[in-house]
Specification:
BOBF_sf, 36% helix, CarO-like, signal, alpha+beta
Length: 180
Amino acid sequence: MNQPLIRHSVLVSKLYNINVNSQTAKEIIMNTQKTNRSNKSRQFSNKQRTILTTLLGSALMFGATTSAYAHDDDRDDDHKMKNSQATLQYSGPIETISVEELIAKNNWLDDQDVTLEGHIIRQVGKRDFIFSDGTGEIQVELPKHLTVTLSDKDKVRISGEYESDLFESNTLDVESLLVL
């Protein structure tokens, strides 16, 4: 035990008119040192505080942006606005292509925007159907938000992007459907 520290404690106690002898001062000093040691073991260094603060801030920012993106219910898978309706209603002739021509013009390097008229003849998946115009058949994928009831007898006009892949089946990703 540090003798000058004990003497100093006794002098300070006399100065403040507190009755402390050297044995009591020694016990107070030992208890204070134990408390300081246990507090130091619970404290973080400046480097640890910086790292913890940075990690906590990053986690909060990541969580906020992720939840904001996850709750963006006004958009579909392609980030296009749902429920947006065109105000133009055209009733004249429209340039269409036949399934046979579409397959013949198949280009693996470039997707094509096309419009077809025909019938959706059967369902092959949750959103996947087979479309036929009498010249051939292709698989089409209808949008999630489509709320039209169809049968294989209904003639439809579909527009979308024909995606031709070298190693996968070619599909038409339907962006609009009109029952004729």
